[in-house]
What does this fold into?
Amino acid sequence: MSLSVHNALPTAPRRWPWLHNTVKAFNANKTSWLGLVIFLVVTLLALLAPWISPHDPLEQNVFAKLKAPFENYYLGTDYYGRDILSRLLYGAQISLVIGIASTVLALVLGSIIGILAGWYGGRFDIIVMQTMDMLLAFPSLILGLILVAMLGPSMTNIILAIALTSIPSFARIARAPTISVKQREFIDAGRALGFSDARLMAGHILPNIFPEILVMGSMWLANAIRTEASLAFIGLGVKPPIPTWGGMIREGFENILDSYWLVLSPSIAILVVVFGLNILGDGLRDAIDPKLKGER
Amino acid sequence: MGAFLVKRMLFAVVTLFAVLTLVFIVIRIVPGDPAQVILGDQADATAIAALQKRLGLDRPIWEQYVSFLSGAIRGDWGVSLVTGRPVIREILDVLPWTLELTAVSMVLGTGIGVPLGVWAAINRNRMPDYVTRIGSLIGLSFPPFVSAILLLIIFSLALRWFPVISGNRATPWAWFQSIMLPALNLGLIMAAYITRVTRSAMLEVMQEDYVRTARAKGVPWSVIVWRHALRNALIPIVTIVGLYLGILIGNSVLTEIVFNRPGLGKLIIGALNQRDYMMLQGMMVIYTLIVVVVNVLTDLTYALVDPRVKLS
It folds into this structure.
């Protein structure tokens, strides 16, 4: 009955296990590809903004202020006569840069904290995770708001504040699989071969928990973009006149009674990007853990 | 029961203490001297020194820390730098508005979210499931101020069902009008979240042996779903509702701004714009207090819903 074992060809170890796992996860639920396409299209538009924008996003024109969409300007103009479409395209750059930078920062720091806590366990684990829980308990938007207000609303400070509020979630997501993976045989094998802790964690734990972190990353990128827009709406965004989606909604809100399109187009832009990232993460999560289907 | 409570209370106290320390540090890492920032660049040295004395900034740092901690516990959170009134009075004046909004939103969020989640779960991989899943993902994609503005455009500007600005709460109808849109905004976003959690919790419970046993012995389907399954699914839902409060409070800041409604949100934005450090300090203390109290309440509810949790 165990004869077939001898017939089975030894499968070659995969070169890039994390890449293989990721593509497999994408294929398991096709809607994640749609999410990825939405995200890539928006990224492309943001990168091409200097070439495809019909106008200069900062150019003011008093004779063409508060123009409704479709008369010369595709999406109309704002109070200063600036072209909204051009501002949207440039605003995408800010949203994506802040979103991606803060998510990557939080992902790297949070994963390191989570893996270390899970790997070493014991008192170290308890203290670190309790601290993370405390940070997690505090309303993150308010923490971010206070940090940005205190440090001053610059791009770097906004990135730092958003990253800090999302580190605990990444630490949590990285810790749990670390604990289960570290009990597997191949880790013992690695130990027997004399691998250092650092090599085991980076080379053997990380690839195994990569899919979970990736799912969390796309969900948190959506959250970071939403938080950046919220901060800008409150007036804690990158300084005007640089266009940001949240800032455009803030300015447009003052003229909402007669020119509702000022808030409508940046709102739709935020929604499309965040929705794309959410279905991306949602689909990937289904693939990774079918039991969790649909939970966030 | 007693041991569990003591442990949770201890954790709450430690959290409170840690956050208070964090608040103290955050307020003091501000680049530049707070007194200088408050008074502006043109202020002369004596005025700055006087303000430093008033704020206690001339004392050693550990002395400031001790007096800050003891003040925070005694309810003496200093005096607002803008209005000159005690910080705690300013906060208590608007606190009911925010608590009222949060409570109504929570009722709406769970009231809409739980039934929708159950509906999606019992129709798994059929039309109701797809509709609620996509609907809840769209709901989760809304930044709260965007959804608030859309509600404002639709119900106040286009349909004119609700006044754009409403502070009048004299009659029950006026109260309803003033709270409905903000609460709906927060409630719908929360419902999107709760729907997903309920759905997955229900899916898990529906696979249990006791559900199959109940079906086999002919218990009516609705009784199985609503009495047997949902009661067990409620355990993770309660935890999530408790955890969600942090998000809800953050979202309420944006909602209060859009609907121009008094509350902690408008207070904190005012304090940020006017660099009212004392007020900010007090706001952070009150937010921490709310979160800690809700965490303890969540633990208690947890035990109420799940008799297996012996609170130990």
About this structure: Residues 75 and 88 of chain B are 7 Å apart (CA to CA). Chain B has a mean pLDDT of 82. Chain B touches chain A through 54 residues (CB under 8 Å).
